[in-house]
Amino acid sequence: MSAILEVTKVGKRFGGVEAVRDLSFSVAQGEILGMIGPNGAGKTTVFNLISGVVEPTNGRIVFDGKDIQGKRPDQICTAGIARTFQTSSLLSGMSARENVHVASLFRREKGGRTADQITDQALALCGLTGIAAKQTDQLTTSEQKRVEVARAYATGARLIMTDEVVAGLNGVETDQILDILQGINREGITLIFVEHDVRAVMRVSHRLVVLAEGTLLAEGDPQVVARSADVIRVYLGSRYADAR
Amino acid sequence: MSAAIASMRTLIENDRIRLALLALSLVLVALGPFYLSAYWERVLIFVFFNIALASSWNVIGGIAGYPSFGHGVFFGMGAYTCAILIVRGGVPFPLAILGGGAVAGAFALLFIPLFRQRGFYFALSTLAAQFAIETVVRTWSFTRGLQSFDQGWNLPDLGSLDFFYWLTLGLLVACIGSIILMLRTRVGLALRAIHKDEVVAASVGIPCTRYKAIAFVFSAVWPGVMGAAYAPFLVFISSDNVFNISITLNMILIAIFGGIGTIIGPIIGGLLLSIIDRLSWAYLLQYHTLIYGLMIIAVISFRPAGIASWFKK
Amino acid sequence: MSEIIEIIIFGTLRGAIFALAAFGFSLVLGVLGIVNFAHGVFVVLGALITWSLTAQIGINIVVASLIAAGSMGVLGVFIQKVFIDRVFKLHPLMILVQTFGVAVVATQLAELAWGGGERSLKVEFPGPALLTIGDIYIPTWDIVIFVISLIAAGVLVMIMQMTPLGRAVRACRDNIDSASLVGVDVGRVFLITMGICGIWSGLAGALVITLKPTGPYMHFFWTLDAFLVVVIGGMGSISGALIGGFLYGIINFAAYYYLPNQAPAIIFATLIALLMIRPQGLFGLGTTVRK
Ligand SMILES: Nc1ncnc2c1ncn2[C@@H]1O[C@H](COP(=O)(O)OP(=O)(O)OP(=O)(O)O)[C@@H](O)[C@H]1O
Ligand SMILES: [Mg+2]
Fold first, then answer.
1. Which domain holds residue B97?
2. CB A76 within 8 A of CB A157
3. What confidence category does residue C195 fall into, taking pLDDT thresholds of 50, 70 and 90?
4. How far apart are CA C15 and CA C8, in angstroms?
5. A17 CB near ligand 1 (under 6 Å)
6. Domains in chain C, ordered, with CATH?
7. With bands split at pLDDT 50, 70 and 90, how would you rate the model's confidence at B228?
8. Is residue B19, in this structure, part of any structural domain at all?
């Protein structure tokens, strides 16, 4: 498997805080990479670095064979990376459909389709067709999260990064989003899936990376990684790890 | 009263009736010179200028969310370009109007670095640019007038009051029409997205700087054009009357008074504020500015979405 | 050479007043995250009230200055409570325009009370009118005012550092969300901040009128000057505003000294350049202004 994204020795400082430190990992074409880590581990910052929202202090990020660090967010999006945001980022005062449509309109390669067709397909894929006309403030949390996913999908990205898309959802809603994401993945789109809900991560991830304090703590097969003592220690404290 | 507003609202919400009303009022306004006194004709010309300026400001300030506090500069530039072209170069008036718009638009490109600022800092940077440019115009011999002691430009008589009435009305319709058309393209959605959240807008693939630049240049060209039309109407122009900071502030006040970020807002704001302005000039001269200020405070404190929001749900 | 020294001395002396007028502005920007376009009104009204109390009623200038400063504090609280608080959660642009409206109304009322022209106050001062340093003559009164400004800055720093009230204000400046989480009454802190802003700016006004003629229409320049000082020095910190005031005083004095006609263009171009290079101010705490 070839790597679609390669992050090499990337670091990011915010004043005194080293949010990400010498981080290296890669994502294979077509996989779903789960990413976990305790609060403040730097997961969102990694997304911000990859999507160009913040510039790395040092390091290289290569997407599809091209350096993307230092590029603007819109250039990176056009290059084929899209993301969702941890805190709702839907554009208020617009309908669900308009929120998705923004992405389709500014998509470069539309594959012979019109922006409207792309929007409608993305909405349908995420089960939003019936509520497309609703304003964002009338949507449920689950619907909001799905609009975010639909919007990322509509950009035509080959790599989609989701930041806690099932946080705050009940079991049924979570399964619905996971099914959508797996559907998207079956189209050949690579996913990075950041989540605190370990059950959800285990269900969809092909591979898992664990971040702690901005660095890579563990990486590999989800079942194996999740059982490693180190990972349990950062999540639950050393008492639990030693008890095993 | 509220029942009247409600029934008016339902009336206005019907698209056909709305279009018909719009066409009717446009015709009525266009026929103005046939039944209006010279005084009211003048008042309406000022209303047209005000609405066009506020509508242009609204594109960058209201729709894109970048409150430019230096927009009066483009009006002044249009006026000066027109005056200099006509007086120095003998250029025909229509060409001078185009020249005013072109110079304002070209100059707007120089403001693009300021878009790295946001909010108050953007407001302050543009305000500072206005003062800096105003000082240069005031002191540079090229812009002072033909004689070394001149403080402005005298323009030849280019047309009757009726001519200027129709000219400004025509430009106003073109200005608002072009704004509506532009907002229907993807530029409109891009600007709204930028206003709501620039990080998100960029992350879905919108090249924000480019669209902000488009919006800014667009919203500078029209004040340039209006300024160029204003110069011969006023006959004598100087930095005091066309580069005055009050022109910038008026654009902002009118847009906010009527309803920021909407097409109808600056129209309502321009009509109401200009008329209040005239009436208080006529009857309450001493308290004129006071009343103006009180109106602004009242609207923003109690109806921040502007007068237009009364007619919506 | 001595010319440059003169510019630095006079610029610094003048800068102290700029700083004094900008402390409140900086605090308000740091704590509330807003620009108050009516800021200059505090300075101008503080000046005119001092003038009336002294020249018309005959009250001692020290008492008059304190009364003027105090009433500007009340005005600050009033503006916050009645106007700004109402639209605080909306787009900050609204506050800009709203406070502009307040400034227009206040100026108009001031013109009804004092007329549109300028007033000035000459202070009888015991002792020599001029001091000499080398071959430079400096009006003693300028130095007195400089010292008063420094004392006023010191008092403000002490309030901010040593009193519970100051701590609450600083907590809100550093992070409003965590301040309210630990139980700081944010609304009250906003009121107090505007009150402090009014008092210190009003005091600046009381000093200004003894230096140069002041009229109601000048409020806008004072607002701009305060903004400039804060841009140079960085917002929120008093020492930043002080240094910003001195630097701005020197830039201002030099610009008017060498190129009196182009001075505004030079000053504003400097401002834009500064904003582009260091938006957090030369000595700023960082950009924490609301979007
Ligand atoms: N813009 C910023 N400025 C300053 N510090 C920041 C910024 N963004 C993140 N940080 C800091 O970087 C560290 C990592 O934060 P990040 O949001 O990436 O963690 P996270 O793994 O996403 O946590 P969570 O699970 O809570 O979402 C934290 O200490 C945070 O305070
Ligand atoms: Mg996070």
1. 42-244
2. no
3. very high
4. 10
5. yes
6. 2-277 (1.10.3470)
7. very high
8. no
Helix B72-89 and helix B245-258, axial crossing angle in degrees, nearest 10: 130
Whole-number Å distance between alpha carbons of B17 and C174: 55
Evaluate whether residue B255 is within a structural domain.
no
Distance A143 CA to ligand 2 centre (A): 20
Beta bridge partners of C129: none
* Residues C53 and C59 sit within 8 Å (Cβ to Cβ): yes
Inform me whether the C-beta atom of residue B125 falls under 8 Å from chain C C-beta atoms.
yes
Contact across the interface for C105 and B252, Cβ inside 8 Å: no
Residue B99 located in a structural domain: yes
* Tens-digit pLDDT profile for residues B12-55: 666 677 778 788 888 888 887 888 888 888 889 999 999 999 99
Q: How many domains does chain B have?
A: 1
Radius of gyration of chain A (CA): 18
Question: What do you get for the CA distance between the two ends of chain B, in Å?
Answer: 16
Task: Return the percent helix, strand and coil in chain C, to nearest 5.
Answer: 75, 5, 20
Expressed in angstroms and rounded, the spacing between residue C168 Cα and the centre of ligand 1 is 26
Q: For residue B312, tell me if it sits in a domain.
A: no
Name the residues around ion ligand 2, CB cutoff 5 A.
A 43-44, 86
Taking the CA of A43 as reference, the closest ligand is: 1
Smallest Cα–Cα separation from A168: which of A149, A191, A148, A140?
A140
- How remote is the C-alpha of B73 from its chain's centroid? 12
Pocket test for ligand 1, best of A12, A13, A35, A45 (most atoms within 8 A of CB): A45
CA-closest candidate to residue B237, choices B95, B80, B92: B80
Give the position, in ligand 1's atom list, of the atom nearest the Cα of A86.
Answer: 27
* In the predicted structure, residue A223 carries a pLDDT above the cut 90: no
